[in-house]
Design brief:
The chain is globular and about 45 Å long. The chain starts with 8 loop residues before the first helix and ends in an 11-residue tail after the last strand. Strand 2, helix 4 and strand 3 form a beta-alpha-beta unit. It is an alpha+beta fold. A three-stranded mixed sheet has the order 1-2-3, with no helix packed on it. 40% of the residues lie in helices and 12% in strands. The protein folds into two domains: 41 residues, no CATH class; 67 residues, no CATH class.
Amino acid sequence: PLPRLPGRHQLANAAAAIRAVKAAGFEVTERMIEKAMTTVEWPGRLQRILTGKIAEMAPKDAEIWIDGGHNPGAGEVIAEAMAGFEEKTPRPLFIIAGLINTKDPVGY
């Protein structure tokens, strides 16, 4: 199965993780891979916010996403992932990204 995480780049990330675990000498079954792909979570990385104060403050039917990416490469991946979302109904989209002052917000 495909990774549950959004973004096409997650296919390569999942494949690299599986190879790394196997290279470290661990036995990995197809069932383990299937469970990992369907249950994986990475809080703060292209994470959709569905509940809480921020969700309550947003316009009706808006999508809110947060991401802790902090470099131009992360910005490109986020833009690609957002462009790949199937838009069935026009609606507001909010992205909340956090960068510290040593990062490149313009490049991001």
